[in-house]
Amino acid sequence: MQERQQYGMKVTLRGSQPRIWRRFEVPADVTLHQLHRILQVVMGWTDSHLHQFRRGNSCYGQSDPEFGVRRINERKVRLQDVLLEPKDRMVYEYDFGDGWEHELVLEAITSTSGEGQAVRVHQGQGACPPEDVGGIWGYHEFLEALGNPKHPHHHDIADWWGGPFDSQAFDIDGMKSRPCEIPAKAARLARVCRRRRDFRQHRCEACAPLPQVLQYAGRA
Q: Strand pairing of 179-183 and 51-55?
């Protein structure tokens, strides 16, 4: 069986304190578009906003001619063509309004026979922030207000969120068995579901477990 390269990656949400990060493996030959899909699941986002990758002066994603934004087509660029050796890094930006920036670092390169699960999550820390919370500073304010009944915005935030929030929650075992936050049929389902505050417990026929994410990403 032909061997293929596997990349050991670490993704860290910039500005998070304590750090929110994940360590995972992914085939080196995935496209950046596939990597975007995988990162959405690994981090816990809902794929409800635009995104791009940045390395040096190069931007990868989808161009927007209407606004004069040019990006290299992420569907035609593979991860192994951007990150070549350990310690190489790039930025993954999600939601241009909230401005979530993730630092992606290539930590190790190994070879695999291609058998078994293509994407593996090994370690991590911290819960993914809520969508539309206002970026990293909005998230800090969200945590402060939600955790302090005397905070002037406590009731508004509690009503907006609709329940408790554990900022340290990260279930490494659950990631391998629970449905992913990326709909396997269409991105529009995420836009329908993202307002549900119980999104991470949401189940529907369009959701797929983590081992299927790479297969799904390849069909998109």
A: unpaired
- Strand 58-61's sheet: what is its strand order? 72-73, 58-61, 51-55, 89-94, 100-112, 4-13, 21-27, 120-125
pLDDT tens by residue, the chain, 220 residues: 677 899 999 999 999 999 999 999 999 999 999 999 999 999 999 999 999 999 999 999 988 877 778 899 999 999 999 999 999 999 999 999 999 999 999 999 998 775 544 788 999 999 999 999 999 999 999 999 999 999 999 999 999 999 999 999 988 876 655 433 333 333 333 343 333 333 333 333 333 334 344 443 443 3
Domains and CATH numbers, the chain: 4-130+170-219 (3.10.290.30)
Cα–Cα dist 125/49, whole Å: 23
**The model scores a pTM over 0.85:** no
Distance CA 196, CA 209 (A): 19
Q: What is the largest CA-CA distance in the chain?
A: 62
Q: How far is CA 143 from the centre of its chain?
A: 20
**Could you tell me where the beta strands, DSSP code E, fall in the chain?**
4-13, 21-27, 51-55, 58-61, 72-73, 89-94, 100-112, 120-125, 179-183, 207-209
d(CA 87, CA 44): 24
Query: Which amino acid is present at 75?
Result: R
List all residues 6 or more positions away from 37 whose beta carbon is below 8 Å from its beta carbon: 47, 182, 213, 216, 217, 220
